[in-house]
Amino acid sequence: MFVRAPVVQGLATILVWAIPTVDVSAQPTVPAHSLLGLLNDLTVKVNTAAAGVPSLPIGPTDNLDIAVLMALEVSTAPLGTSSGSFTFKFDGPTGIFVSSTRTFGPAFAQRSLTSGKGKVNAGFQWLHAHYDSLSGLGMMNGDLRPVQNVRTAEGPAPVSYSSIKVNATSDINVGFLSYGVINDLDVGVAVPWIRVSLGADAGLFSATNQDLTPGGHLLVIPHTSASGVGDIAVFAKHHLWHQGDPNDDGGLAAGVELRFPTGDMNNLRGTGVTRTLFSAIWSHGGIVSPHANIGYEYWSKKIQLTDAYLKDQINYAFGAEIRSHRKATITADIVGRRLLNGGASGYRTVPLFPGVIGEVLRTFPQSLDVVSAAPGVKWNVAGNVILAGNVLASITNGGLRSNLTSVVGFEWAF
């Protein structure tokens, strides 16, 4: 059975990807120079190429949601802790503030301690991620096939699968500032500046892996970058309960963080939703200081995907700090989040056109877990200045995965 080339309406959204939004009717035109604009231009190129392939067995429009998953990975990545490395308490006999901790705190979790009344912590953090796989499919080796095993009743179709090679990276630069309103209450703000870089190469292939793409490497997005502000966060933490031993520097705290939709969705820097995180925080002081966090993040509206939607997530972290030297703290955290209602993806056999079926990479209505290990070190280089180095090593991520994310930062307390 053969299906004629004119039935390529919506081809690119199967062979490449389309960008779903929360409310399509309310979205302005995507700027041509944006990353989404370049993706749209690639769909035009693929459609044009497809017209030159006889008997192309592709018909309906579907979304692959790669861009949404990338925007979510960038926007929901852990930005480090808002807990200051230095915390202070007022010493009555001397009349001065003294350090109240024996470690410099966790890197990607919170501890219950607050900075101290009138104390300020300011800092900067840089996170670099190169995205290696989507649903376990390599992003750069041709394994990523938006549609595969296309066939008719008589057997394999002339075009059996499409393949995309995607080179995608993000650099998140975060400036943060926190202030001790009273001894047990901190407030603060975190402003991310995000650079997303993207390049892509798309092709059409036969069942024998023959490249059928007219024009060959004309079906590309040249490596392009876009920078700007991400989703800005404001936060507060209240130390509710102090442990009985005044030297134990631990207890329970409650935190709230509000993320505003200030990141540009057209350039994969934001989610387009307001997110509010409520969290419970426990920590225990000492030379080895364990901590644990659990929180629920409420989203103001859902993000629609092809066959599912995203709405809310659960955040958690646990680990410990170890005082290895009076000027050094080793940190070890497990950091995780669960995107609720959707986000997991895999292949599903669907009809592409009457008499033609294929396996299409789809996003399922199944929660997605993102878990990373975060080892690192904090070093007190001088005075109240801290340098920190960490990696986020992905343990599990069925979505868009960066195997290793490098993290460097500094902090100053005054």
What characteristics describe this protein?
mainly beta; disordered N terminus; 414 residues; 7% helix; 3 helices; Porin
Quaternary structure annotation: single chain
Whole-angstrom Rg: 24 Å
Strand order of the largest sheet: 3-8-9-11-12-13-14-17-18-19-20-22
The helix content is under 10%
Calculate the mean pLDDT score and round it.
80
CATH fold node name: Porin
Tally of domains: 1
CATH class: Mainly Beta
Give the overall shape, derived from the CA principal axes: elongated
Helix count equals 3
The assigned CATH architecture is Beta Barrel
Tell me what portion of residues adopts beta-strand conformation.
over 45%
For the terminal residues, how far apart are their CA atoms?
75 Å
Largest sheet: 12 strands, antiparallel, barrel
Topology pattern, helix = H, strand = E: HHHEEEEEEEEEEEEEEEEEEEEEE
Give a description of the structure.
The chain is mainly beta and 414 residues long. It has a single domain, classed as Porin (Beta Barrel). The chain contains three helices and 22 strands. It has a twelve-stranded antiparallel beta barrel. Strands 5-4-21 form a three-stranded antiparallel β-sheet. Strands 1-2 form a two-stranded antiparallel ribbon. Strand 1 (88-91) and strand 2 (96-99) form a beta hairpin.
